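Researcher: I'd like a candidate sequence for this fold, 304 residues long. If you have to choose between options at a position, lean toward the conservative one.
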């Protein structure tokens, strides 16, 4: 049974009975985990040129987002003649897993994701979102205006269910744990944000192989250059937010590096995070997710 996930601006039921097509690519991520980066990479691999035929938001629409009527999004996708790549923030257990599609799940260190989410939430034009969704402002504004450290500590401690808040720590860990459990399936692959940052060309080549896309060797330098974080940052106004729900589009790609939470959290804070994360996800996923055997600087791992 497929799980239904709903929030004031998303509804995974919009995927039910979606008419898949051979070769469809579904990009499944939590917020602020590298969604737009992987959308851009897929666009570059599909079109094999930085000169895209349309805005990234129209080429790769967000099907779950309630701002655009579902029929309109489906009609837009039906009219596409290129290989389709579709954005979702729904975990795989909330999606129809269709044999004609491939599913790319993007992961990021949850603390880095949370810092980015904190700043992103303050860049949202909530009056605009309210006007587009019809949701009460109180339902849309789910992030209290506290300091980054205070907010992170509350985010670490929150103990509700993933269905209540997918961008919570339980929600992030559920999304990734579910994908991790399916990683050996031929139609599921995981991408780590830090691998994109450290070896962009290698990850792009790996994705091209996985997706069965042939790229002429002479095309790789220009494609990799167009996918660099600073290039996307410079082109932010053309790449994102077709509905103007951001106060400042240039802040959408804010920093693009890892470790921001370590600048504000103490070792005791990190120990609380490590304990909480260990309750929510399997050890092998946590090691992969945090990219260190010990997981957190200055905090030794418990022996397994």
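Model: Candidate sequence:
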């Amino acid at each position: 049974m497929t799980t239904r996930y709903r929030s004031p601006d998303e509804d995974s039921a919009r995927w039910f009975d979606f008419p898949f097509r051979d070769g469809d690519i579904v990009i499944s991520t939590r917020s602020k985990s590298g969604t737009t980066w992987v959308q851009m990479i897929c666009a570059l691999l599909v079109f094999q040129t930085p000169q895209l035929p349309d805005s990234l938001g129209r080429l790769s629409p967000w099907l779950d987002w309630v701002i655009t009527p579902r029929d309109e999004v489906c009609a837009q996708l039906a009219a596409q003649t290129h290989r389709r790549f579709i954005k979702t923030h729904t975990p795989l257990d909330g999606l129809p897993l269709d044999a004609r599609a491939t599913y790319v799940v993007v992961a990021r260190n949850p603390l880095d994701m949370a810092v980015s989410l904190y700043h992103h939430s303050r860049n949202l034009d909530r009056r605009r979102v309210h006007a587009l969704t019809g949701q009460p402002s109180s339902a849309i504004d789910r992030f209290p205006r506290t300091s980054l450290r205070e907010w992170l500590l509350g985010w670490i401690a929150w103990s509700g269910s993933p269905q209540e808040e997918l961008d919570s720590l339980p929600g992030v860990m559920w999304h990734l744990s579910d994908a991790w459990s399916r990683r050996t399936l031929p139609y599921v692959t995981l991408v780590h944000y830090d691998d994109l940052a450290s070896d962009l060309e290698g990850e792009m080549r790996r994705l091209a192989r996985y997706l069965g896309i042939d790229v002429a060797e002479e095309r790789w330098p220009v494609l990799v250059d167009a996918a660099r974080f600073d290039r996307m940052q410079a082109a932010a106004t053309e790449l994102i937010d077709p509905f103007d729900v951001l106060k400042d589009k240039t802040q959408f790609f804010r920093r693009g590096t890892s470790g921001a939470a370590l600048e504000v959290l103490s070792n005791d804070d990190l120990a609380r995070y490590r304990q909480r994360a260990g309750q929510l996800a399997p050890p092998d996923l946590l090691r992969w997710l945090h990219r260190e055997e010990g997981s957190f600087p200055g905090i030794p791992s418990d022996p397994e």
